[in-house]
C-alpha cells in the first residue's frame, strides 16, 4: 500500500467530478483496536439529475477501521467534487459508502444521508456494509428528522 498522501500538506484543487477525485489512505495507527471514526458533512451538495437544481444533505459517515484509514482532506475534496455531479439521493449516498468500503476495506462502515426537502419531501438514505462488529460502540448519528418550519 502506497501511504504517501497526495493532498495532505499540498495545495489541492477541488476535483471536477467524483470519478476524478483521489481518496488517500494511510495505515491505521491503532490497528489492533476496535473503534469508530465519524465524519459529518452538514453542508453537502450535489445536483438533481432531472432539473440540475442543487440538492443539500447532512451526511454522516461512521466506520470501524481495518488496516487503513481515509485521510480527511482527501475525503473533503471527494465530497466537494459532488457539487457539480448530477445524481439521485440514493445513488449519491450509497455510491459514497460503497467507494469508501471498496477502497478502504474497513471492518464496518455506514453512511446516513439526511437530504433536505425539495418538492416537499425530505429523503433520508442509509447504507452499511453489514452488522456492526461485536463490541463496537455505535452512537446514534444525531441528525434530527426534518420537521419543517416552526
TrEMBL record:
Region (Disordered): 1-20
Gene3D superfamilies: 3.30.1130.10
InterPro entries, sorted: GTP-CH-I_C/QueF (IPR043133), NADPH_dep_7-cyano-7-deazaG_red (IPR050084), QueF (IPR029500), QueF_type1 (IPR016856)
A single BP term in Gene Ontology: tRNA queuosine(34) biosynthetic process
Reaction catalysed by this enzyme: 7-aminomethyl-7-carbaguanine + 2 NADP(+) = 7-cyano-7-carbaguanine + 2 NADPH + 3 H(+)
Residue ranges, compositional bias (Polar residues): 1-15
Main location: cytoplasm
Enzyme class, spelled out: oxidoreductase
Keyword Transmembrane helix on entry: no
Pfam families: QueF
Function, in words: Catalyzes the NADPH-dependent reduction of 7-cyano-7-deazaguanine (preQ0) to 7-aminomethyl-7-deazaguanine (preQ1).
Record's protein name: NADPH-dependent 7-cyano-7-deazaguanine reductase
Protein's organism: Sphingomonas rhizophila
Source lineage: Bacteria, Pseudomonadati, Pseudomonadota, Alphaproteobacteria, Sphingomonadales
